[in-house]
Specification:
The structure is a single chain. By secondary structure, the protein is mostly helical. Among the domains are: about 150 residues, no CATH class; about 100 residues, Cytochrome Bc1 Complex, Chain D, domain 2, CATH 1.10.760.10. It contains 13 helices and four strands. The strands form two sheets. The protein has a two-stranded antiparallel ribbon. A two-stranded antiparallel ribbon has the order 3-4. A hairpin with a 2-residue loop joins strand 1 and strand 2.
Length: about 350
């Protein structure tokens, strides 16, 4: 098991940490730069939101059940006080045993403060849930009495949407007097889910503005398109480079691009001119500018002759010296000097071949 994971799990046990497991990287310059601190702060923020929601629910219910809440408040405060004291005492004890140690680069003081806040938040959530359980029990009894008295029950969906037009009498009260083609306008409140979605859209807009237009931590659509096009161009270039080396005597095509012909000319001047002449007029090797060929004059035949050579006549194989792309460039250059009629051209050899 990972050493850091063992250290983190051992921190959850009472009695602190041992120096062997407490050793970690140097303390970062900022609390927010530490990964452990970031996780703990995120947990604290999430629990704070949960507390805010539960607290809001409890506050709304306090008007109905103030006396019952008041009776449980003393117990709640006592539990919170005992828990906070225990957390502080435990953290103080652990800090004394690891004063000079760090937890994944985070100081013990900062770590224990953050974990204490999380523990306190969890305690508050448990207390709120306990209060809600009490309130739910009272509400359940109240609804049972109401149902026994003949009052209509309201479904959870109606409570979530806070609809008031659930009966003919309620619709008459909510009618605003606007009637068109049998459709009446009712003064119903806006559903809570719609309000929350509206508020969340504001939060989303602020986050979007910060991420894409202020901090530039994520690319905009045009920037993302440019990045995608750049990656596609790199992939295309790599594909073409690989495809260029997949050429053989069966798939080779005559190249007519000036850059390819120029590359073929450089290869010819460096490696072939000694036997075939600088202009291809022929010396030890045959003339390459006329219509006569010893081994065929088609582009695939010239490519094959260069690739495999003619060992019995002193021409080596160039497949280990040139890449398939270079052989195609060299063969295309040889085809480009056809019918140039250089001075001192060697007599024809071989048979007439189609181009």
């Amino acid at each position: 098991m990972n050493k850091k994971l063992l250290c983190f799990l051992y921190l959850l046990l009472p009695g602190g940490i041992t120096p062997a497991l407490a050793q970690g990287p140097p303390q970062p310059s900022s609390l927010l730069d530490n990964a452990v601190a970031q996780v703990l702060l995120a947990v604290i923020f999430g629990l704070f939101i949960a507390i805010a929601v539960l607290g809001n629910v409890v506050i709304q219910a306090m008007d109905l059940y103030r006396e019952r809440i008041k009776k449980t408040a003393d117990k709640t405060l006592l539990i919170i006080g005992i828990t906070i004291t225990g957390c502080l005492f435990s953290n103080n004890t652990m800090a004394q045993t690891a004063v000079k140690e760090t937890i994944n680069g985070l100081s013990p003081t900062a770590f224990y403060v953050l974990t204490s806040v999380i523990a306190l938040e969890l305690l508050v959530i448990l207390v709120l849930l306990y209060a809600l359980r009490i309130l739910a029990g009272i509400e359940s009894k109240r609804k049972s009495k109401a149902a026994a008295a003949g009052k209509p029950a309201i479904s959870w969906w109606e409570r979530v949407n806070k609809t008031r037009s659930v009966s003919a009498e309620a619709e008459q009260e909510a009618d605003m007097g606007h009637d068109f083609d049998g459709i009446r306008e009712l003064n119903n409140p806006t559903p809570p889910w719609w309000k929350w979605a509206f508020f969340l859209s504001f939060i989303f807009g602020i986050i979007y503005l910060w991420v894409y237009h202020i901090s530039h931590s994520a690319p905009l659509q045009l920037e993302e398109l440019a990045i995608a096009e750049a990656h596609a161009a790199e992939a295309k270039e790599a594909y073409l480079a690989n495809a260029a080396n997949n050429i053989d005597e069966h798939s080779v095509k005559l190249l007519t691009d000036a850059a390819d012909i120029s590359s073929g000319q450089k290869l010819f001047s460096t490696n072939c001119a000694a036997c075939h002449g600088a202009a291809g007029q022929g010396m030890v090797g045959p003339n390459l500018t006329d219509n006569y060929w010893l081994h065929g004059g088609k582009i695939n035949e010239v490519f094959s002759t260069i690739k495999y050579g003619v060992p019995e006549k002193g021409m080596k194989s160039w497949k280990d010296d040139f890449s398939p792309k270079q052989i195609a460039q060299l063969a295309s250059f040889i085809k480009s000097i056809h019918d140039t009629h250089p001075a001192g051209a060697k007599e024809p050899q071989g048979l007439v071949s189609e181009n």
